[in-house]
Amino acid sequence: MKKNIVVKITANFERNLESIEQFLSDAQAVPAFDNLLVELAEKVLPNLERFPDIGKLFMDNPARSVEVNAELKKLQKKLNGGILREYVIADYLMLYVRHDDTIYLLSIKHQRQLSFDFHSMWNRN
Fold it and tell me: pTM score > 0.90 for this model?
């Protein structure tokens, strides 16, 4: 008998969605955010519930430095046996972890979002 998979959204994932909404609003692409929400609700969540291992294993990405390797080992411990995966959705990269029959959506970013907040770095008073 197949287990029922439950998908849960973390607070960080919600913050990421707010960030994407602001990013797309600033780019005058508000309909793209609406499309993302529809895609998540109608395709991504049902796909994850049905095929929870659909995403690529995150830990299969090569560690190209000693520092990254050390951080990946720390991350593995924090996952407490969960499996971290990445899932590409059009212009977005999503990270999720699977613990048995539960999936936790951890993070989502638009491919064009910068990882650094240069604006606040340069505008310090």
Answer: no
60: confidence class by pLDDT, cuts 50, 70, 90? confident
Q: Which tokens belong to 114?
A: 């910068």
* Token pair 């059009």: residue: 90
Instruction: Read off the tokens for 41.
Output: 């609700």
Domain annotation covers residue 99: yes
Please indicate, yes or no, if residue 121 is contained in any of the structural domains: no
Q: What is the average pLDDT across 83-88?
A: 94
| CATH classification of the domain holding 39 | 3.30.2310.20
Q: Residue 56: left (phi > 0), alpha (psi -120 to 50), or beta?
A: beta
- Confidence at residue 40, expressed as pLDDT on a 0 to 100 scale: 97
How many domains in the chain? 1
CA distance 83 to 95: 10
Domain presence at residue 83: yes
Please report the beta strands in 53-110, taking only residues with DSSP state E, as ranges in sequence order: 56-57, 83-89, 92-99, 102-110
In contact, 122 and 114? CB cutoff 8 Å: no
Domain coverage including residue 47: 6-112
